[in-house]
Amino acid sequence: MLRRFLRITALTTGLAAAQNTSIGGFVVLSAVAHDIPPAQAGLLLAAGSVICAACRLAVGAAADRGIGGSMRMVSIMLAAGAVGLLAMAHHARLTFVIGCLLAFGGAWGFPGLVHYVVGRVAGSATTRATATVQAGTSAGATVGPVIFGLVLHHAGQTVAWGSAAGVAAVAAALALWAHRTERALIGASRPGSARDTRSR
């Protein structure tokens, strides 16, 4: 069951990394294409980075207090990121800016929470579990920007960001699936519950 959880989570983070690295790599180029001056496009990237950092701190603090420290919260964040990416596919500048900030917060804010969940679920196997998930993340971060760049070049802004939104939505659905396995694993670790978990 732990291996299944790690495979699903690695696929989740791989898809998520494929689209979130594209945000950082292409947001300035896209902002300029939306008639935003280069200096303001750079400020938009900086603002998005600040929001990303704030979201990571916020979800970490919430998890320390027992609030939202699960793959369900990861799913919610990725879903919010998907909405932001979809807004970035719009031609209006204001919609693009708002979508960009939302995408940075949701689509970029999840990695620390994923590692927290993996560590909590894996227990003594945390090192190997983290390596498995990080392998998926690294693969997505490598391939994603290349594919996004090709789509952007051949199909344009709307299709590229719309496709990224679709990838983020799939990652959100996978995170929700991982949450089901996460709950089963946590239940199996409780005294007297292993038999019930195996029967499921």
Weakly predicted, low-confidence segments: 193-200
Order of helices and strands: HHHHHHHH
The CATH homologous superfamily is termed MFS general substrate transporter like domains
Helical coverage, percent range: over 70%
DSSP helical segment count: 8
Oligomeric state, counting identical vs distinct chains: single chain
Q: Averaged pLDDT, please?
A: 90
Strand fraction equals under 5%
N/C terminus separation: 11 Å
The rough form would be described as: elongated
Keywords: Membrane, Transmembrane, Transmembrane helix
Transmembrane segments: 40-59, 71-90, 96-118, 130-152, 158-178
InterPro entries: MFS, MFS_trans_sf
Pfam family, one: MFS_1
Please describe what this structure looks like.
- By secondary structure, the chain is mainly α.
- It has a single domain, classed as Up-down Bundle (Growth Hormone, Chain: A), CATH 1.20.1250.20.
- It is built from eight helices and no strands.
- Helix 1 (2-33) runs antiparallel to helix 2, helix 5 (111-122) runs antiparallel to helix 6 (126-155) and helix 6 (126-155) runs antiparallel to helix 7 (157-188).
- The radius of gyration is 18 Å and the shape is elongated.
- The chain crosses the membrane at residues 40-59, 71-90, 96-118, 130-152, 158-178.
- It comes from Blastococcus brunescens.
- Keywords: Membrane, Transmembrane, Transmembrane helix.
- This is MFS transporter.
